[in-house]
Amino acid sequence: MGFAVACASKQSPPAREPEPERVPPPAPELVKTPDRPRFVHVPRAYPNFRFRAARIGYELIDRRSSVREVPAGTAALALPSDGATWDVELPVGFEQVVQERLARVVSGSGPELRLVVEVRKLTASHQGELRQIAVELEFKMQDARGRPLLGATRRGSQDLVGPEYDNTELEDVHRAACTDALDAFLASETNMALVNEVVASH
Question: What is the pTM (predicted TM-score) of this model?
């Protein structure tokens, strides 16, 4: 008796659907952000203590002969070429800064005093992307007759690194360095106490 053998044929798997071509999402819109924050000066806090004086007059002195002339509308800190250091003047508006600070520190009663501020050093320098202002001021507090009450020297400096900056920002850096030196003298309770002690003894 013969047997019939049925051979099952192997079925090939169903063909896969071709995957759709993946399209990359559009690139987000590029927004240029500044490489550094704009310079902002944070001045020194003043104490509640006061000089015992009805008012304090002032005089600004600069006897340096090497100061470079700065064209109107140009910041002194923008002038030095790379690798150069220039002697520069006090920043525009510094007299108003002195007046405002002196108004803070007088008690409103007592003798009239006088503050002499002499520029010993004030330079603008440029090294690569770095610009720097450095200042040294000499302070002499006197009574109305010119007798010395207190003398001191104070320094200040500020750095600014690129990218590009405008004249307004460079002037802010210039003024900040000089203001820091002024505040180091006027905002000192020790200096106030020393002057008040001498005033009381006169």
Answer: 0.81
